[in-house]
Design brief:
Layout lengths: L2 H27 L2 H22 L8 E2 L5 H30 L5 H38 L16 E2 H18 L2 H10 L5 H6 L1 H15 L4 H40 L1
Parallel strand pairs: 1-2
Amino acid sequence: MPLLAHLVELRNRLVLCVGVLLAAVIASYFFAADIYSFLVEPLAQAMQAQAVEGGGSTPHRLIYTNLTEAFFTYLGVALWMGFFITSPFLLAQLWRFVAPGLYGHEKRIMLPYLFLTPLLFFCGAAMAYYWVFPAAWHFFLSFEHGQGAGGLPIQLEARVGDYLNIAMTLILAFGFAFEIPLGLVLAVHVGVLTTAQLRAFRRYAIVANFIIAAIITPPDVLSQLSLAIPLLVLYEVAIIVAALIEKTRKKPEEALETNGE
């Protein structure tokens, strides 16, 4: 295809992606209250457990301090959910644009990564929601206490926008972090990296994983370990898979060398 035809196809696919994303955002806005309830459930459960442990029934709530804050928060939730549910479609459109320019063996290489990308992303997002959120919120709520002698009680009065921003950011961050090992395997598959380089880089990867976890997660050790340890495990899995790929790739090369001799 000529360059102009590629640009026209790229424009058409971008318009289609934007249209589908916009439709998903609009549809998600009508369910923003349900999405909000889903995202806030780990905090509500942590608050309830904290109240039971404290021997009372201290009421908790999320507040907004600006007249338009709740509206824009719901709009942000709709945008987040729209991107979340359309990401497989966006990835498929990227593949359909790139695939015609690939050889048959290149397509066979890329297809498994195309399916594994959303799977690993959803695994990371699920880990953030079902494992990290309960532990992190329980830790932060542990700093609440009742009124002491001559003192005032410390109680959380969280803004709804702040909570949802950190919740949505963590879910996306965990999802994208779980894509890193897949990218490493792909780099070995196409010959950019080698398994020996991944093994040599292991000590630096350990430090890098903990730095990434410290930046992404809340500032408590449990949350950081909850991301760093799975990333380290996935890094080792990436080395094993990359070694198998290199071994499989060397067999045809050795056969060709033998036949040539």
